[in-house]
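Troubleshooting log. The previous structure file for this entry was overwritten by mistake, so regenerating from the original sequence record. Sequence copied from the archived sheet and checked twice against the printout by T.R.
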Amino acid sequence: MSKLRAAVLGAGAFGRIHARKYAEDARVHFAGVYDPDDERAQQLADTHGAESFASREALLAACDIVTIASPPSFHGDAALAALKAGKHLLIEKPLATDAAVGAEIVRLARADKRVIACGHQERLVFDAMGLLSAPEKPLRIESVREGPWTGRSADVSVTLDLMVHDLDLALCLIGHKPERLLASARSEHGRTADAIDARLAFGKAEAVFVSSRVASERKRFMRVVYPSGEVNIDFLARTFENTTPFALNAAFAETRIGSDPLGANVAQFIDAVLGVAPRPVVNGEEALAVLELALEIDRASGLPSLS
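Regenerated output below.
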């Protein structure tokens, strides 16, 4: 069987990781990368003995599957171009920055039977812990995802940059969208929210999300309260405390999935393209639900989603 030809749009931090994952997978030939920064693209291509393409169109003509790891505001346009070229896609979060564009991505993929995966790989951390098979639904979710200003993904709000991970986890655990939400935000470096608090009502359950990219230090934790107890997760320390009767895996960070969720996400995307897995970790419909919720939170905050 011939190898899948893989390529990466974007030679930044995430693009470099995706390129390495493709290059390490025996089922894949890593064809190359395109980035408007020619020097950065050439450096990444040289690392893996691949090609630095002169244009997005040239890259799409040379691959079967592609990761879109460009700045978030370019995701939607790049995804539509790739789908129209007949490619399977792994899109780093968010799926797009416009709900109508996201819906069109999902429609095209479904019509042409193309696999769409999205980079919400925190879901794999929950899978490795065993939380996705918990026998109860949460009553309350509290999350904090903060860090200092880096300038990365500044083309979109912190909601689309950071909070989307926790929104995906909440939708996955609770199983439906909220009925009501409130949000407040502030901006320090442009038009969009750099710090935002959101409170969501999911029927009998509620969730409180805090995200910031202008905090003094990095924090990544979530508290999930169930009828029988609670689980407190520290995503940075890769540990959790559990007072529920659920049989969770305390050694989740040592598992293949828990130790490298991004790599596991790429691997399952390839599995789905090859028909080995029935679906990617997070599919287009699920990524669209997260996008729509994030955009609704930004609207409630009064600040735009795009800079």
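The chain has a mean pLDDT of 97. Archived copy saved in two places this time.
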